[in-house]
């Protein structure tokens, strides 16, 4: 790659054995920080998400968004010839990332110990549901299972409910992000020591680090947090309220903001009321305060209140649908929607990068996700191995999903 | 610090001006990766979360969990003497992290341009609600506001609802994690270039990168994702079902697993039924399939099904409450609950680290969070400045929150 460095990890070579979400999300983040990512896929099949809806011109938009910019090489790690290619790639790689079930890489002869023996400087990132140790090690894990066991479901959803899975696959996304962070820090350390590392990231462990106050409260008080709807478990008012024509978010995290809110909505009596005039009182009387505020907020529309309260510095917001999100002026100004021009799929739009780092250009476009095995000729040349013909592109038939 | 390196960022000095959640979470992750974190707080007041419930012996467990291991120095950046101390710290720092509203650091004379002029090698991480550019730049942002504008609320919660805030402050937590990742990658790059960077992380930008398929679907099809309860928007069955005595999570992401499930629960007819015998059919007939499965699952308890299905490799799980989470054998085996012995608060338990990296010891304990200004004598000595007496510890009165 002779172009301008895309980010601080420019020049880092990632050998990417990951599939579906947690692993590919990890390597996408590393790509966005500048790394070169070579995705190794099963010949003829490829990453399962190549068959995930929605589709555009018969190809998966889901796959395209989580694998933009990567290159693809199809290798069967049980095939001797392909293993030679893989060894050549390992020799040149800085990082290997995989998200198979623990034990799979060992069975293929590429567990960490085997890799380390030949390539001691390789940073080996393993992402799995439960990690490489412990009684759950060999259990299958999906995002839903991890959210269930990690307590995430039990604290998410309407008050009085038993909880709901988060609307995003945070089990996968967070594990991928934590893995990228661990890998990046190991790359930093390796510049001094020359040493590779084994990084063992478990989705369930990561969930535990995201429980915020629920976990410490459980340990400190024995009190189990339950779903609290849209409101913050402690801060009040910090909730979604009903205005004349729909819901509006209001977040007043201190007395000063609460007082400003009361004045601005024409309810100055509330700020003097001993039931509401300090944070602990508001917390204790949260249901009554919600009724009082909704009485007043019913007088105007969401748009009306946002227009009135925002310039006063009071934190309010409409509840954006996904259709609103793609039109948000701030996200547009921040280049958060980038365009991909894919030869087969046509134009696509997707999330850009939240990594705004000085000295690196913020491109409004991304290279497309690779066709299966698309990089074969290039990789063979880089490895000075005999050139093989590029394999045929696998077109997915949405009627016959492979997963 | 002469002890064994705690992690790959050992030796990295973080000058930490952050408060509340997004910023302190970022520096906690960096601490867990080995960095030394010096927390700069307002004299007499300190981080607002020192007054966040729950409390143990009058001190905040919330603060304690998000600031374990850090050191604290109280500085007023408007005071000339304190600014000299701060300049001395900047000279020795590798990284500065702050999460004030954009413009605040400039008004204090410590915006990036000013810092860069004197200390060009400092990596400057700025975390804010909307970032340093764009029309929302100066608006106040809290987690709820960012979740509202970012579309997160609109896709979370029971089917048919208007959506609910996620049960965790993911706006803060994710921004802190992404900031840590950007900082770590900039540290890697700096080892080669010697160059500092300005890193501008916006909570709203980060939300956009976590929308998974909802955003690309909106762009590709114009279809706005809505809350889908506990079920996956596409994969079926991937949901929480009612068993005899409560809810159970079942995640069968492919035909193979679905067939195994049908056999194991004694409903082999389902796997042959053309309404359910492939993923697209199951997706189309999801409500009917849920009814069929719940009919069968009603025959046994959650514990009964888990005991039966887990050994068969079928991904099932009970919905853990927070009380279950703290007793989970896998999390215990993974050292995910660490102990802190605080001189004033006594023993505390909190989440450990999901960063399992070879060559670094996994300690079952953490040093406590600092008392306000506790590191003063040490820091003055390190800077060879005249020693001042340690300031008094600020005890928070929960009746009089400072925020």
UniProtKB/TrEMBL annotation, chains A, B:
Protein's recorded name: CaiB/BaiF CoA transferase family protein
Natural source organism: Hyphococcus aureus
Gene3D superfamilies documented for this protein: Crotonobetainyl-coa:carnitine coa-transferase, domain 1, formyl-coa transferase, domain 3
Positions of the UniProt region annotated as Disordered: 359-403
A Pfam family it matches: CoA_transf_3
Molecular function in Gene Ontology: transferase activity
Entry-linked SUPFAM superfamilies: CoA-transferase family III (CaiB/BaiF) (SSF89796)
Keywords: Transferase
Biased composition range(s): Basic and acidic residues: 373-403
């Amino acid at each position: 790659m002779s172009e301008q460095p895309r980010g601080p990890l420019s020049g880092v070579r990632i050998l990417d054995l990951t599939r579906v979400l947690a692993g590919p999300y990890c390597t996408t983040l590393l790509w966005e920080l500048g790394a070169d990512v070579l995705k190794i896929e099963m010949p003829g099949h490829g990453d399962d998400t190549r068959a995930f809806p929605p589709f555009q011109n018969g190809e998966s938009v889901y796959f395209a968004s989580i694998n933009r910019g990567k290159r693809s090489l199809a290798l069967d790690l049980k095939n001797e010839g392909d293993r030679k290619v893989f060894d050549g790639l390992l020799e040149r790689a800085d990082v290997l990332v995989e998200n198979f079930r623990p034990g799979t890489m060992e069975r293929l002869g590429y567990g960490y110990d085997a890799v380390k023996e030949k390539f001691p400087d390789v940073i080996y990132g393993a992402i799995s549901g439960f990690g490489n140790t412990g009684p759950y090690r060999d259990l299958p894990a999906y995002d839903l299972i991890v959210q269930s066991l990690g307590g995430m479901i039990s604290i998410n959803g309407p008050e009085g409910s038993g909880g709901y899975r988060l609307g995003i696959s945070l089990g996968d996304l967070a594990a991928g992000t934590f893995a990228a962070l661990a890998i990046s820090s190991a790359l930093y350390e390796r510049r001094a020591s020359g040493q590779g590392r084994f990084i063992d990231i478990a989705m369930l462990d990561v969930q535990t680090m995201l429980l915020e106050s629920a976990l410490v409260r459980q340990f400190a008080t024995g009190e189990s947090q339950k779903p609290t709807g849209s409101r913050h478990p402690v801060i009040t008012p910090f909730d979604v309220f009903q205005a004349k024509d729909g819901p509006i978010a209001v977040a007043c995290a201190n007395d000063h903001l609460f007082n400003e809110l009361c004045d601005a909505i024409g309810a100055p009596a509330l700020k003097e009321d001993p039931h509401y005039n300090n944070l602990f009182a508001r917390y204790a009387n949260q249901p009554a305060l919600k009724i009082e505020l909704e009485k007043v907020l019913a007088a105007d529309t969401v748009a009306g209140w946002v227009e009135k309260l925002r310039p006063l510095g009071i934190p309010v917001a409409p509840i954006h649908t996904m259709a609103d999100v793609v039109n948000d002026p701030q996200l547009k100004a921040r280049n958060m929607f980038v365009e991909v021009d894919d030869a087969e799929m046509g134009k696509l739009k997707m999330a850009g990068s939240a990594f705004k780092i000085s000295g690196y250009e913020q491109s409004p476009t991304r290279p497309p996700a690779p066709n299966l095995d698309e990089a074969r000729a290039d990789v063979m040349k880089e490895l000075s191995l005999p050139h093989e013909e590029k394999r045929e592109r696998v077109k997915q038939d949405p009627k016959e999903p492979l997963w």
